[in-house]
Every structure is written in C-alpha cells, then in structure tokens.
C-alpha cells in the first residue's frame, strides 16, 4: 500500500520520502477544483505545497518536517516556476510581514512585477486574477483597495482562506475593527467541519477588537475545544483577559496551555508578550527574556514591536532598561527608512529615543514628513501628516521632558489612534503615554485631564492594578 502510494506521487521529485508521506494530507489539483477553488497549474505537487504554505500561515507554525514555509515555497517554485498563485502567496506573505518596503527592496518589488507579468501572460481564473490585483495594491500601500478586492473574491468564493487571511491582516494594519469582525462572520456559514482550517480564532479576534469580550471568549474556547493547538484562539482569550483586567485568570490560562501554543513559532513570542502584560499590570517589573530571545532570533516584525512596546511600558513605570534599548536598536535601526506602516514607525522611534540615538530619531521623522508630502495611493503615508507625524512628535517631546507639548499633540488624537493599526491592547501604550504626560505636566488643566483619563480607564478595566498605581501617583504628584 505504501509503495503504491509513493509510486502514484512520482512527480514529487524534489521531496524526500518522508515529506511525500506528509503531503498526502494536503489538497491536490482535483481537490482544489472540487472545492470551487481551481488553481491554474498542471502540477499536483505545486497544489499540495501551496496548501502546505497556507496551512502553516493560518496555524502560525513552521512545520519543520516540510522545511517550514520557506521550504514549501522553494518546493512550489521547483514544481512549477510559473504557477501564479504560488507567486501570489510567497510574495504576499513577504508583503504582509511588513519587514521590507518595495520602495527600498528591489528584489521584493521585482517579485511583485514578476507575478503581475505571469498573470498577464496566462489564461488563469478570474479569482486568481483578483488575487494578483489585491497583492499589487497592497504592495503600493493601498490597503483599503486591496481589502475591497479580497472581499470581492470572498463574495463568490467564501472558502478562499488566502483572501480571508490576507484581508484579516490588512484590516489589522488599518485598525479596521468592525470589518475584521464582519469579514469572517460573512463566510462562516459556508465553512464545513471537514474543511481543514481554523476560523474560530479569526472570528474571535474580530469580536474582541469590536469589544464583544464575552462572545469573543466563548468562540475562542469553542475553537480550542476542536483544536487545542490553535495559537490564534489562545491569543484571542489572552486579549480578553487583558482588556477586562482579569489578570489571575489570564496568567492561569496562559500557563495552563503553554505547551499547546509555544510550538507555534510565529506567534509564541507574541503570546509571551501578553503573558508579560499581565505581570506588568500586577507588579510593574518583568524580565522579558522570552520576548527578546524570539525577537533577536526571528527578525519578525511582530516580535520586534512587542519587544519595543514592553521596554517603553517598563520605562514609563520607572524601570531602567537602557541596556536593553541599545540591544534592540541593532534590530530596529535597519528599518528606519522602511515606512511600511505607521504602527511600525512609532515602535522604531521608541527604540531610537530610548537608546538616545537622536540622529536615527530625526531621520525617521524627516523621512515620514517627506513621504507625507506626496503620498500617492499609499494609505499609511496619507495618514502620516495628520496622525503619524504628530504622534512621533509627541513621543519626542515626552523624551525631552516637554510634557505640556506632549499632551497638546496627543490629546486631540485620542479617538483617531485606532487608525495606526494594531490591537486595542497594543495601542493602550499610547493611552498610557498621554496619562503619564498629563500627570507630569505643570499645566493644572492637563493634570486634571490626567485624573479624568484614569477614571475613564478604571471604568473600562475595573480592578486594574496599573490604573490604581497611576491614581496613587497622581495624588502624590498633585497634592
């Protein structure tokens, strides 16, 4: 039986026998066609490796037995170098990682052009053509239009996970909380239990960002009952406990399921970051070795911004982290000119300010100012002048001890900060920055504002030790 199976898949010439046995679990050309998601290639191997890439992307886990995502991308290219969707997924994954800019990286820019040229030279399906269009729009920074195209795909093909996941990530970068929730809700009825992908975590995350915390927890727990190793469902529950300041429940949950989610190498560091937030809330000090270890090893943008955020929070709490800033600067400094997302830029600035690298800080701000003059279709650069640059300036003023100016810059943006992207938990850093600046300001009006912001925070997150610490600090400063 085994020999017959291997003989049947003799086209898998570039894979080892071990990998051959594994890829039987992935969808063939015929299986994709049967699901209404025809792939324009004659190679079964390319189809199965495309499925392997997609599965690892959704599970946030590189499967070492397959050579990880990079190994599967190489296998797709070897099986069919002209497979358009193979180029879409490989180039698209690099784009959504936001670790490189097509303005500066000619290899990435060339990969986008190559995909478009291949699509124009072949008779591919309308769905595939839309995928190419969405990827090209995203590469130009036109996130909203890219999402419109992915949503067009999902109208006719609601089980196209690549369109769903790419749009989910793009909505996240835009802080588009309701679309992130509704995009998944619209397709849920079309997914059957036999279809091998996790939707509960995606839907749960959209629910929690829309602040339906109880429903988000319920859906995530349903997902974990089906697939205990669904790191994204774990991540959603971690968010719920963070936003509700249920710290002991969060700590118990993360520790109890650590063995399930720590194997998801692309998300493990971020889940440790959530664990760290609970500890900062409770005791204000933490040695974030896990987050820093993953950040330095992976180079992942999610890991980089998490490490930056942790240090900034600790520094606002009065913890000395100057050595860690210097260490992290070696990771962030090469990205100073990228300007892929405002969210990333703000975190790079945290590091250069913390490391007292004033030249890098000025260079980042000036580069953003230049791009804001002629943003073109780039949605992030369009927002730079009204949101990104004032937020950068506020952080620089705070770093200089100019707390009055920090408040004047940051306070008008309170309800617009969502547009920089990220999650509520991640953006809370800037709420904390405004509170600290208001408390430290010599302006009595600002001090009163700081106390009011703390009352607001206490209403949203009752029993938060961090809020109570800040309230006590405000009383000590102003009495």
Automatic annotation (TrEMBL):
Domain of life, per UniProt, equals Eukaryota
Matching entries from SUPFAM superfamilies are given as: TPR-like
Fetch the InterPro entries from UniProt.
Answer: TPR-like_helical_dom_sf, TTC38
* Keyword vocabulary terms for this entry: Repeat, TPR repeat
Q: Which family does it belong to?
A: Belongs to the TTC38 family.
Give the protein name, as stated in the record: Tetratricopeptide repeat protein 38
